[in-house]
Amino acid sequence: MPRLFALALVLAGSTGCDSSDRPGGTGGSGGGEAGTLSVQAYLYTAEGAGYTLLEPGAELELWAAPQGGHWARIGARVGGLGTDTAELVGRLFDPTTDALIVEADRTAPMVTTKDDPSLKQPDPLDMYNVVHLPLCPGEGGRGLDGESYRLEVQVTELYGNFSTGSVSLPVVPSCQQPAGPAQDYCACECGSDYLPGKCGGPTNG
C-alpha cells in the first residue's frame, strides 16, 4: 500500500503542472499550428554592415576565420516569423552526387529589417548570430574555390508555433581576398586535392 500511495501522489503532481509556467523565448505568441516561413538566403558581410542577398549562381565568400580555415557566414531574411528567436541551419551539397558536404546551425536573435517590417533577420551587430559553415580545409577531391555547389538554408521558429521554411540555390564558393599571399593560401586550402601541409601558412602561400 505505501508504494501505491506514493505512485498516486507522483501521478497527481504530474497532471497538475501548468505549461504556462515553463520558460520560453521572447516575442512568442504561444500555441497554434505551425506554418511555412518564407526564406531568402543572405551572405553576412561584416559586423554592423548587414547582408548581401544570395541569388542563384552567386559567389559565396570564403572568409578566413581568426581560428583558421575558411568559412561561409550565412544569414537569412524570413517572412512569417512569429517570435524573436529562430534556429538557422546551413547545408552545402555537392550537386554532382547530392552528397552533404557540411552542415552547421545557429540559434539567433531575430530583428526586423529596416527596409521591410514584415521580414526578420539575425541581428547583424554580431557575426556570431549567423551560421558559420566550415568549408576549408576539406578532405581533398573536388575542391570548393570556383566550383558550383548547392546551398540550403532552413529556418525554424523557436518558442512559438515552430513554423519552418527553407531555400535552396546554387552558389560558387570563392576566395575573395586581395591578390597576394592570403588569396593564394585560400586558393590552395580550398582547392582540389588538398592535403595537410600542402599550403604552408597564410603568409607564405
Task: Please outline what is shown here.
This protein is mainly beta and 205 residues long. The chain has helices at 2-15, 181-189, and strands at 38-46, 50-53, 58-61, 63-64, 70-79, 85-94, 99-112, 119-122, 131-136, 149-157, 164-174.
Describe the protein in words.
The chain is mainly beta. It has one domain: Sandwich (Immunoglobulin-like), CATH 2.60.40.1940. The protein contains two helices and eleven strands. Strands 1, 2, 3, 4, 5, 6, 7, 8, 9, 10 and 11 form an eleven-stranded mixed β-sheet that branches. The longest helix is centred in the first third of the chain and has 14 residues. It is globular and about 50 Å long. The termini are far apart.
Question: Secondary structure elements and their pairing?
Answer:
Elements: H1 2-15, E1 38-46, E2 50-53, E3 58-61, E4 63-64, E5 70-79, E6 85-94, E7 99-112, E8 119-122, E9 131-136, E10 149-157, E11 164-174, H2 181-189
Shape: globular
Q: With helices defined by DSSP (H or I, 4 residues minimum), what is the helix count? A: 2
Query: How helix-rich are the residues, as a percent range?
Result: 10-25%
Structural class: mainly beta
Number of strands: 11
The averaged pLDDT comes out at: 83
Kindly provide the radius of gyration, computed on alpha-carbon positions and rounded to a whole number of angstroms.
Answer: 22 Å
> What is the makeup of the main sheet?
11 strands, mixed
Order of helices and strands: HEEEEEEEEEEEH
Per CATH, which architecture?
Sandwich
Give the C-level CATH assignment: Mainly Beta
Domain module tally: 1
**Which topology does CATH recognise?**
Immunoglobulin-like
Separation of the first and last Cα atoms = 78 Å
Poorly predicted runs: 1-32
